[in-house]
Amino acid sequence: MPETLRAAPLIHAAAADLPEFIARGAAEGWDWPTIFWRRAAATPGTWYDAAKADFMVDLWPDIFVLTDLRFAGVPFRLALWQEITVRLLFGWKIPTEIVDPRTGAKTIAHVRLFRRLLLWIARKNGKSEFLASLALAFWAIDAVYGGQGYCFALNEKQAGTVLTKMKAMIAQQPRLARELAVFGKSIWCARKLARFERLTGKAAGKHGMSPYVSVGDEMHEWDSRDLDTTIRQGMAAQLQPIELFASTAGLKTAVVGYDLYKESRAILAGPIEPPDAGADTGEGIYDPRSLVVMFGLEDDDDWRDEDNWRKVNPNLGLSPTMDFLRGEYAKARNNPRAESHFRRYHLNQWVDASIRWLNVARWDACAADKQAWKTRAETLRGRACYGGLDLSSVKDLTALVWIFPPEEAGGKLEIIAKFWCPEETIEQRSREDRLPYDRWARMQALTPTPGDMVDQNYVMRAILEDAQVFDVKMIGYDPMFATKLISDLQEEGFGAERMLKVRQGHLTLAEPTKMLEVEVLAGRFDHGGQPVLRQMAQNAHIAFDRNMNFVPSKKHSAEKIDGIAASVNALTAMLHAEDKTSAYESDRLII
User: Fold this and answer.
1) Terminase large subunit-like endonuclease domain spans which residues (predicted)?
2) Domain residue ranges in the chain
3) In which order are the strands placed within the sheet that holds 550-552?
4) Among candidate residues 155, 156, 153, 160, the one with its CA nearest the CA of residue 248
């Protein structure tokens, strides 16, 4: 394989005109190519090695192939955004003073200007393939003797994504396969005595490395910068190390990833010319050694506009297709949760960790008879059901929800929801919450209990009475505030085998929460028009974890959602009863 080119025609930094490939990027509406070309040109001493950049771009389809699906084995022809990235990374050089290890004399070495790539791009735009090819290009082609390479992410499995792509490229390209030996967790280059391997996501035990190439994937999921920092500090002996970082967007609460995103934005917004010492650069950061390649919607961009989809998916047509994006948009249009997924994964837009959840029109469409809640108990006599409890602190609402599975395939879930509220707080609650608790009480959609706190004996009696009318299979309950009620029920003969503690968290509640959403969107969650439950459906927000699993969030919901929480607990009990072996169980505690 060729060594780094030493002699080449130069385009001097003073050149005023933009090269053709930068102009093409600007014509696409991308600002980053022009910003980083001009910043590189304005950096003292820099020059552009056009021959080296041309050589690397021409080399790409000869050396690298795509690895998956209909693309497998196809020569990797760089898309425009990828070509610009390669030309900038390999072409711009800067002189640096070094000590010659043979003579001890000071000398000048011309090294690559850019030492870090920060790539932000939506899913299925070839991020992993491009990252893998870049890693091979720097580590195996523009190589140095003993130059080690590492890839890392949140964990070792995730870090393996890029390494797997690299190994697939080697397997499908004889020229690479002759030079590189592939092992389970690493690649070996005997000619350079260099190893490329994947790391676990923790910094412990990583000191002492001397990396030449560092690949960090999915920045939005990183827990800390410790490993990144450890690797970078180990690069001190390298003349021109490179960090290749890439990610899609994430949740704004992902502190490390969001900080890296904001840092990337600040580098984009930074000054072109080197600022004077101590000069105020505003919100921008002057960092001529970092290259930011960013495709994503701004907060005020219209996510429904297909022109914006094209702007942030530079590989559109190859992957993803417009047909696919339109299909995902159709799912997201009236579903806030799906909207959040669409905007994050396919438009590369950072999203809030909690969003309003259920579409009220879809909710209303579930019940053909909006008055059915008043008489439903009689029509469901003797039917099997599962209960969900959400017990309040002494002065809040308490909810009990019964869910009746359909007797025939394809039928609807039928719902009975009951609520209790301290009688003496109804007037104040109606005034402060601006909700008609008093009217709901008169309608018997909500039961007042005497005094200024909920009397759980009312709830217990309702459960025992309903157990005489319905075939109660199991009740799922949040153990918070439930100790006395559960004990009292057992003393009254309601067996412990029918009570299921449900720990409140993503691990337990993600599946039943998604089931509730699916049933509502399909029109199969027949709530009979119960007005209190409807209001809570309107109030409900959901919170995401880093994997975009979601659960109802009382913390982020503006008003009460106890009935929705109780519904999810009931579905948890139903799913558990249907397949007890699918849940982890300890003392009947779902964890």
Assistant:
1) 294-578
2) 10-295, 360-590
3) 354-356, 541-544, 550-552
4) 153
The torsion region of residue 278 among left (phi > 0), alpha (psi -120 to 50) and beta comes to left
pLDDT tens-digit readout, 233-279: 889 889 999 999 999 998 887 788 899 999 999 999 999 999 988 78
**Residue 108 CB partners (closer than 8 Å, separation 6+):** 95, 96, 97, 98
* pTM assigned to the model: 0.73
Q: Are 489 and 460 in contact (CB under 8 A)?
A: yes
Name the CATH topology of 360-590: Nucleotidyltransferase; domain 5 (3.30.420)
Number of other residues whose CB lies within 10 A of the CB of residue 83: 18
Amino acid at 43: T
Q: Name the helix (H) or strand (E) containing 420.
A: strand 413-422
Q: Which two tokens stand for residue 498?
A: 């029918």
Query: Residue 353 has which token pair?
Result: 């960790």
10-295 to CATH, choices 1.10.287.1080, 1.25.40.10, 3.90.950.20, 3.40.50.300: 3.40.50.300
Round to whole Å and give the CA distance between 181 and 190. Answer: 8
**Average pLDDT rounded to a whole number, residues 138-142:** 95
HSE-up of residue 413 (Cα within 13 Å, Cβ side): 26
